[in-house]
Amino acid sequence: MFQKNYKKGFTLIELLIVIGILAILAGIVFVALDPLTRFRDARDSSRWGDISAVLSAIRVAQVDRGGLYTYGVKHDTAAATGSPFMIVNATTTPANCSVTCDVATTARCANLNQLVERGYLGRIPVSPNGTGNWSASGNTGYYIQLNANNSVTVGACESENTASISVTR
Fold first, then answer.
1. Dist CA 106 CA 12 (whole Å)
2. How far apart are CA 47 and CA 125, in angstroms?
3. Which of 13, 26, 112, 136 is in the most buried spot, having the most CB atoms within 10 Å?
4. Separation between Cα atoms, residue 85 and residue 103, nearest integer Å
5. Three-state helix/strand/coil letters over 21-61
6. Residue 140, SS3?
């Protein structure tokens, strides 16, 4: 009896076809996931969390003070109600706060260090580095604005995937 000796395995052509299909699928998945957009979304999410934490700390401090704002909010911003003030990350207010935010150009600083000193906020947050020019002189990339109706707006000077990032309470 004559028996054929077959070798088991894949041919080179079959392997190249499978590798080509896998490469095409990997490219499609990579483009669909768009990692650059995901990183931008993550930085924007961090900004949302930071401004919410600052605003919550301001409001808790206001309740503890019987309705009065902390120094960095009321006294620094009262003279220019409706104007944004750059929140600074320093124990002393820097001389230069002239920064162009998404909302406006501000030449004033708001030092909210008392919120940290008194335990309302763990630290003054600093915006993740994205596209802004605000990073000089201890500026955080966040602004605060006291509105005419006595509400406070805290926002980010930059946003990468959303129109603007701000919260008003």
1. 66
2. 9
3. 112
4. 11
5. HHHHHHHHHHHHHCHHHHHHHHHHHHHHHHHHHHHHHHHHH
6. strand
Determine which of 35-49, 95-109, 143-157 has the lowest per-residue pLDDT on average: 95-109
From the CB of residue 125, how many other CB atoms can be counted at a distance below 10 Å? 20
Q: Tell me, what amino acid is at 42?
A: A
Provide the whole-model pTM. Answer: 0.74
Residue 55 vs residues 30, 34, 65, 160: alpha-carbon distances, Å:
37, 32, 15, 21
Tell the residue number behind the tokens 């028996």, with chain if given: 3
Sheet strand arrangement including 139-146: 109-111, 85-88, 139-146, 152-156, 166-168
How far CA 120 is from CA of 103, 112, 115, 147, in Å, comes to 26, 10, 5, 22
CB 87 within 8 A of CB 54: yes
Q: Is 127 in contact with 50 (CB distance < 8 Å)?
A: yes
DSSP 3-state of 127: coil
Is-contact 114 74, C-beta < 8 A?
A: no
What DSSP state is assigned to residue 16?
Answer: H
